[in-house]
Amino acid sequence: MDVKRELFLPALKAALKNETVSWEKELEPQVWMELFQIAGKHQVLPMIYEAVYGCPAARKIEPQILLSAKQQTIRAVMLQTMKTSEFLGMFADCQGSCQ
């Protein structure tokens, strides 16, 4: 199975449309891990996780695989939140000194 073409891109498309995928067919654990690995590599794991965690196929997955992806998603969101906060602080400092 070409995970990138058959799963990653449809999941990304769904995420961009603020939708979820409706996969019914049970997927092998290795396929799920590859999907989440590709999403992490492209730094879109939170988007992909959001699009897939509620689909019927995800209800059939080993809980540990989904839990691992959830934990990675939480870490990614927390890191982005901290980076955004730091950026806004620097931007505010720059605005104050540049005026």
Shape: elongated
* Fraction of residues in H or I helices: over 70%
Beta-strand percentage range: under 5%
Number of extended strands:
0
Average pLDDT, all residues: 93
| Cα-atom radius of gyration | 17 Å
Count of individual domains:
1
Q: Give the number of helices.
A: 4
Structural class: mainly alpha
Poorly predicted runs are none
- State the order of secondary-structure elements, H for helix, E for strand: HHHH
Characterize the biggest β-sheet: none
Oligomer: single chain
Distance between the termini: 57 Å
How is this fold's topology laid out?
Elements: H1 3-16, H2 29-41, H3 45-52, H4 63-98
Helix pairs in contact: 1-2, 1-3, 2-3, 2-4
Verbal overview:
With 99 residues, this protein is mainly alpha-helical. It has one domain. Helix content is 72%, strand content 0%. It has four helices and no strands. Helix 1 packs across helix 3. The longest helix is centred in the last third of the chain and has 36 residues. The chain is elongated, with a radius of gyration of 17 Å. It starts with a helix and ends with a helix. The model has no long low-confidence stretch (mean pLDDT 93).
Provide keyphrases for this structure:
mainly alpha; 4 helices; 99 residues
Summarize the model shown:
The protein is mainly α and 99 residues long. It has one domain. The chain has helices at 3-16, 29-41, 45-52, 63-98.
